[in-house]
Amino acid sequence: MVTYSFLSTDPVSPARLFAAVRKNFVCGGVTVIAVCLAVTAVLSGCADERDVPPKAIPSRASVAGADSSVCPETTVTLTAEAAGADSFLWKRDDAVIEAQTASVLVVSESGVYSAAGVNEAGTGTFSRPKRVAVSACIPPPVAGFSCADNLDFFVLKSTSSGEISGYLWQVSGRGDVALLTPAAAETVLELPAAEATVTVSLTVRNSGGASTSSQSIVLPPLTSSRQYGLGRVTGREISHNVDYVWYIDQGNTGPYSRVNCGPACTVMALKWIDRSFSKTTEDARNTYHPMGGWWYTNNITDYLADNQATHFIESLTQAKRLTDVLDGGDIAILCLDMYYVRGHSGRPEWHTDRFYAANSRDWGHFIVIKGYKEVDGKVWFEVYDPWSLDVKYGDGSLKGIDRYYRSEDIMKAVDVWWRYMIVIRNPRIPSVRSSRGADPSSIVHQRGR
């Protein structure tokens, strides 16, 4: 509704009022008749008669603001401008947003937004549409992790909660300590050569943010007991290795390789006694049972005697007697049933237990016992097992070298097969020890492959 005020000092007649109103509704020579007017005649002392024109239409609005929300924020603020506007009208997806007349609009829903600056008559022009995307932010994750001693390395596992899109492990404090997979939920922390304290941190993140958890960890040194999978705390240990190669893989010893464990162990013992010993496993095979077949324990003692090696056979009913022999500086050859030595169940790089199949009883075999370790209260015998057959560790070394078999397994395997040991004297130690050999006439010899 348009209101006109007429100011005059004279009485206003109805005809004059109509003429004045009619004059103001002539547009382009066309008289607008059908108009509802509220006409007010005001008498005053003013001599002029004047008309009050309607307010001008505001300029076209412009809208400024971000195109999308950025977590952790879940809203976008839009600001409208229009010259001459008394208030603003907002739309989302072409629908008017009720009760929003300010120049600033806080958007919490995705959509296409526009605004118009309007005058008192509600007239104005809408801005260009602006598309806004509002994300429903997820909360940032909460970092956490566990640490487990796995003998030759520590295992770090994320225990973080919440939605996680990325992991980052970091270690500080020692340059020789490395993380193998720093961008995974689980990683491995390598052990140093000497004890060290390091700080490990795990950062987890998602679109809502990130968090970090840190722990100080004391790392033990990487001992051979840990590296080989034997255990953590090493007590007494003896090893009669020498500074030259004397191990033999029976898998490369000629046409009878599959039954050459006896000849191979005997030649190993002779090489251990004398680094210049030049005969081969094939030479030993050609001396006894040259046409093939298993060797017997007396074939071993005979070949040792043929090559002037000091040795004797002794009853073996307790593991302590074998450790006593090793403590005295000697080594021994055993004939046993490998079915009773448990199969390997740890990591492939560990040197523990039998590494090949022996799935049936009467799996007679010869091995060289050359040392032992007491680890976590358990005795492991250090062995040269000739049954490598070119099977190797990741570092390229044969799996029969420095293998460790449990004392209880060795004693069981000996008890069911041949309850003796062939002791080979160490020529590098003065011979002040007594030879408590068994009576050869009382021994029933046994075979091995």
Summarize the structure.
The chain folds into 4 domains: 3-43, no CATH class; 62-132, Immunoglobulins (Immunoglobulin-like); 145-222, Immunoglobulins (Immunoglobulin-like, Sandwich); 239-448, Cysteine proteinases (Cathepsin B, Chain A), CATH 3.90.70.10. Helix content is 14%, strand content 32%. The protein has helices spanning 14-23, 224-227, 261-273, 281-287, 297-306, 319-327, 407-415, and strands spanning 3-8, 26-27, 30-31, 38-43, 62-64, 76-81, 87-92, 95-96, 104-107, 111-118, 130-132, 145-149, 153-158, 166-172, 186-190, 196-206, 209-219, 234-239, 295-296, 311-315, 331-337, 364-375, 378-384, 403-406, 420-424, 447-448.
Question: Topology, please?
Answer:
Blueprint: E1 3-8, H1 14-23, E2 26-27, E3 30-31, E4 38-43, E5 62-64, E6 76-81, E7 87-92, E8 95-96, E9 104-107, E10 111-118, E11 130-132, E12 145-149, E13 153-158, E14 166-172, E15 186-190, E16 196-206, E17 209-219, H2 224-227, E18 234-239, H3 261-273, H4 281-287, E19 295-296, H5 297-306, E20 311-315, H6 319-327, E21 331-337, E22 364-375, E23 378-384, E24 403-406, H7 407-415, E25 420-424, E26 447-448
